[in-house]
């Protein structure tokens, strides 16, 4: 008991209060609610096609054991056969006719035995069906979807960083007429959610000829008011003396921006880059209306069209879902603190 | 080209808003629009209320002296980063007729439930899944607010032997009010525009039980055989009207709460 007390006591208090117990109970329930669905998804994605349609489902991925038998080209499924004398034996099934199955003993493949299918049970072993993942790259145009998503995410993030930082530089380091109103105008577009201007945005993209082109997804959202705001607020803290000193040394305005202001804004740029990667990787509505041809689908669109099919191939769909959530999970695992403080600071997502 | 789309005045609004009998929405010309509007209102009211309560509770728990606060904060925040499609597929996989939930029910001894094709349950799950996916974001805002409350206030309250409940209602909640308003309005603005998770999870069904305004816009403007851009844009303006009201409400509330704090 004393070790438990030592582990659980908090500073200033001897042991756990009932409110502490309640808090931890809440947190554990939260942990389960938030993570169990994801864990279930990941475990399910390793099940074979046969195991995935099993009901009730198991948590761990099980698959039927198979053996290679001489004289048979394909591996045969193993069953546990109950014999008349009550003993049990593992046998491989050659084929099945009606309710009778032709079984052979893997050790002595010459002898065939007819067994009623009710007297045999499949032999299962834990097996991770990695081919759910490897098949994706061979069987489907999954590589194309992945490439489209990566291309959009990377190019759009680079463009977002460049354009937003240039706007923020002008708004924070230059004094000109109407500076404040330009800034307010940019911030005001925060009030217009993308769902409202869906139709006009689509018509413009159509008119420009970017329908069914990756650029049609990248360009419309490259300039974000959030990014301009975030970067401007940060650049305001960079002392003007640095820029004046650079001007004394005959640095060009571009050089000041590129060599002084940008490197000094690295923390804010990193936050915006993380945001932008998240936005672009997870974006759904804009790609949905702009990209209607299969070869331009992003991962999100591919997942959506895949799950809408009549016979959903869940084993592939789940593997695809896991691949889609993998980069976000990795980013989260390593950059959690930056993301959470960035969001708490800017109040945006 | 713009000139191939003639100006039609208020025709699209007439199509949207014309009903033979305004008490019976099935007599409207676009009854699906009205159903979407009512679904959206119902969804927003329930979802925002639960969202604020749950994220407040979570933030209060996370603000206590707990071991591994960073880890727990991450736990609640993780789903926020998942894409709506992934969120919907995770839950669709759990809720499908042969999924984990039904396996649990069968093991329990009761009959399986068609979670996503029963209209009541489908609506419940759209609310649940959207809260699951976004709660961490609002929790974070509230947590930042809680941490900004000066510690000496709580010390003073402890000196005065104030009960925890009294401390909560007299110190924490009033000082958290600005953040609560932000959360309330942001959640409402988001809830009114709900689309992607629900679109993948239920497709708006069964029937039109989970069809919301943005899905109506998407379907009239982009998904159906004939793209009715004008009608979709008119519905967008109706949505914009909602959002303007919400934004004005935010401004009013913020001003009122600031004025209240000055008095105190």
CATH superfamily of chain B: MetI-like
Q: Please give the count of helices of chain B.
A: 11
Structural class of chain A: alpha+beta
How many helical elements of chain A? 15
Distance between the termini of chain A: 46 Å
Uncertain spans of chain A:
none
Search tags:
heterodimer; A: 349 residues; alpha+beta; MetI-like fold; two-stranded antiparallel sheet; 15 helices; 8 strands; 58% helix; elongated; B: mainly alpha; 11 helices; 73% helix; 0% strand; globular
Could you give a short description of this structure?
Chain A is an alpha+beta fold.
Structural description of this entry:
The complex is a heterodimer of chains A (349) and B (264). Chain A is 58% helix and 12% strand. Chain A is α+β, with helices and mostly antiparallel strands and 349 residues long. Chain A has three domains: 2-44, no CATH class; 66-122, SH3 type barrels, CATH 2.30.30; 140-346, MetI-like fold. In chain A, strands 2, 3, 4, 5, 6 and 7 form a six-stranded antiparallel β-sheet that branches. A two-stranded antiparallel ribbon of chain A has the order 1-8. In chain A, strand 3 and strand 4 (88-97) form a beta hairpin. The radius of gyration of chain A is 30 Å and the shape is elongated. Chain B has 264 residues and is mainly alpha-helical. Chain B has one domain (28-34, 43-263): MetI-like (MetI-like fold, Orthogonal Bundle). In chain B, helix 2 (31-62) packs across helix 6 (119-147), helix 2 (31-62) packs antiparallel against helix 8 and helix 10 (213-223) runs antiparallel to helix 11. The mean pLDDT of chain B is 86. At the A-B interface, helix 2, helix 7, helix 12, helix 13 and helix 14 of A face helix 2, helix 3, helix 4, helix 5 and helix 6 of B.
């Amino acid at each position: 008991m004393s070790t438990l007390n030592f582990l659980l006591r908090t500073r200033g208090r001897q042991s756990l209060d009932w409110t502490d117990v309640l808090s931890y109970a809440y947190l554990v329930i939260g942990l389960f609610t938030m993570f169990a669905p994801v864990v279930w998804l990941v475990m399910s994605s390793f099940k074979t096609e046969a195991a995935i349609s099993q009901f009730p489902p198991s948590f761990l991925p099980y698959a039927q054991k198979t053996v290679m038998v001489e004289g048979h080209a394909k591996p045969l499924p193993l069953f546990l056969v109950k014999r008349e004398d009550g003993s049990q034996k593992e046998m491989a099934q050659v084929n099945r006719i009606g309710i009778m199955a032709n079984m052979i003993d893997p050790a002595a493949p010459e002898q065939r035995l007819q067994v009623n299918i009710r007297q045999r049970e499949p032999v299962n072993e834990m097996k991770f069906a990695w081919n759910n993942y490897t098949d994706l790259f061979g069987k489907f145009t999954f590589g194309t979807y992945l490439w489209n998503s990566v291309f959009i995410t990377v190019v759009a993030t680079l463009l977002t960083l460049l354009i937003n930082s240039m706007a923020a530089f002008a708004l924070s380091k230059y004094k000109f007429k109407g500076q404040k109103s330009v800034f307010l105008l940019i911030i005001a577009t925060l009030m217009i959610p993308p769902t409202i201007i869906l139709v006009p945005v689509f018509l413009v993209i159509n008119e420009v000829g970017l329908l069914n082109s990756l650029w049609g997804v990248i360009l419309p959202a490259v300039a974000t008011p959030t990014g301009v705001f975030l970067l401007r607020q940060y650049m305001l803290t960079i002392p003007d003396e640095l820029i004046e000193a650079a001007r004394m040394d005959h640095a060009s305005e571009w050089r000041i921006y590129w060599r002084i202001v940008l490197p000094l804004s690295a923390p804010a740029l990193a936050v915006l880059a993380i945001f932008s990667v998240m936005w672009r990787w997870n974006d759904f509505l804009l790609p949905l209306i702009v990209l209607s041809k299969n070869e331009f689908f992003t991962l999100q669109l591919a997942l959506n069209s895949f799950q809408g099919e009549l016979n959903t191939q869940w084993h592939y769909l789940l593997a695809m879902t896991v691949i889609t959530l993998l980069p976000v999970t990795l980013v989260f695992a390593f950059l959690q603190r930056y993301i959470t403080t960035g969001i708490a600071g800017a109040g945006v997502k | 080209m713009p000139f191939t789309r003639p100006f039609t005045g208020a025709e699209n609004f007439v199509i949207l808003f014309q009903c033979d009998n305004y008490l019976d929405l099935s007599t409207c010309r676009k009854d699906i629009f009205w159903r979407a509007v009512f679904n959206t209102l119902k969804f927003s009211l329930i979802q925002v209320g639960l969202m604020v309560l749950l994220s407040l509770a979570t933030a209060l728990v996370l603000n206590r002296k707990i071991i591994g606060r960073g880890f727990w904060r991450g736990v609640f925040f993780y789903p926020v980063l998942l894409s709506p499609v992934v969120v919907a597929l995770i839950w669709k996989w759990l809720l499908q007729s042969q999924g984990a939930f039904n396996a649990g029910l069968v093991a329990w001894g009761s009959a399986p439930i068609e979670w996503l094709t029963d209209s009541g349950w489908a609506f419940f799950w759209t609310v649940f899944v959207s809260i699951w996916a976004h709660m961490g974001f609002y929790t974070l805002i509230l947590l930042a607010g809680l941490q900004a409350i000066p510690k000496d206030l709580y010390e003073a309250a402890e000196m005065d032997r104030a009960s925890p409940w009294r401390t909560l209602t007299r110190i924490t909640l009033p000082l958290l009010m600005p953040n609560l308003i932000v959360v309330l309005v942001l959640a409402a603005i988001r809830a009114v525009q709900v689309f992607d998770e629900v679109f993948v999870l239920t497709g708006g069904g069964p029937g039109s039980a989970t069809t919301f305004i943005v899905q109506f816009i998407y379907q009239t403007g982009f998904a159906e055989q004939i793209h009715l851009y004008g009608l979709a844009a008119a519905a967008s303006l109706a949505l914009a009207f909602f959002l303007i009201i919400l934004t004005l409400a935010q401004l009013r509330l913020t001003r009122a709460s600031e004025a209240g704090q000055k008095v105190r």
